[in-house]
């Protein structure tokens, strides 16, 4: 599972809620009246930014007013997250308008991903996310963590407001374009004897529209009826609660324990890149408030051997679906269904989800989770025949030196490839990438690699995409089983393994 599958889940949830009462509609279409405990009223009460008479703001107001369906979808998504965001903002004494910033950033899509590689509700790029403590690895991307990313975003905004002497419009502009760009624009205006407020600065086009969009949302939420809109209430109460789960857990298992759809669980916990949580944490999950008690009871009663039901198999040269299915005790049909494969074609370097969930049956029943996990450890921890590469799952007693020796690679190279200190401590269950795989060999030595999915846009071609992400065209084609004559279509998803150092131009 990756962000694209979580995005599919969000789309499923969007479709399910289309028939529900509208949160935002055109005035006169029967939206419910405001309730005293309405979260929108709470947001309005905390407004502290000054409305400004600027054409750029009115332009954005007019756009939002013409698209009530867009606002409705956005706030239905945001209904899950808004109470937490507002509570955190109030605790810091920040303007409550900032609770509307995810409307501008991501339309409250927790897996939104931009061309600049920004991700999550608050659209952190990798470097800024790391600067504010958002861990990013194979299992987990903190930029998509509802709690961690909200804390990081508010920390960043507070720091920017302090930098720009309490001017929140400049802080918001800097959140979009970077503090250095805003500082340089201010310096240019000072040198020219011009005002240094946001609307007099020469900033990138996106930023010149970004702040007006936030002010437009403020104006619309402040008085929807003035713009021909009606807002139904959002309950002014927590939507979710955090539950400590005590270690790594399969997300499908968690959904079943909470008696919750997997789409809803993923919408609240979008930071996990695969169907299992990070063995090194965080060891908590968010669940709707009304599922708290049953989930806590279920976690307490869950046998340790049933916590993890899925593993991933890295396809190697010579692998077939039949051979992989036999190795893990599941059926080919289950492998195809779990990985959305339309045929039997697989390629080296591809990750296949192997599940012990009902439906992955052999003989009289589902393959036990413990058996699948043991098979995964044996398969993933053994060196590849005929060369280096693959993944190693850390077992008791393992060190970087012993892993490097076992796989015949340089220890320093192994450490750099995984972003680890050479004398660091490893955790049992931790996944170590072994340099030499298609993925690793395609990237510069010592770089930190990130798996990402790119959605093809109109006008894209393979060469342009490769140039944009600073990867080799041949690698892009190999990763996606394409050739020079392949045609890509808008909406098609391409997988890429990006060296962050190369992407940043280092």
Automatic annotation (TrEMBL):
Residues 311-354, 390-434, 452-496 form the LysM domain. Belongs to the transglycosylase Slt family. One of its GO terms (molecular function) is lytic endotransglycosylase activity. CDD domains: LysM (cd00118), MltD-like (cd16894). One of its GO terms (cellular component) is membrane. This is LysM domain-containing protein. Pfam families: LysM, SLT. Coiled coil: none annotated. GO terms for biological process: peptidoglycan metabolic process. Signal peptide: none annotated.
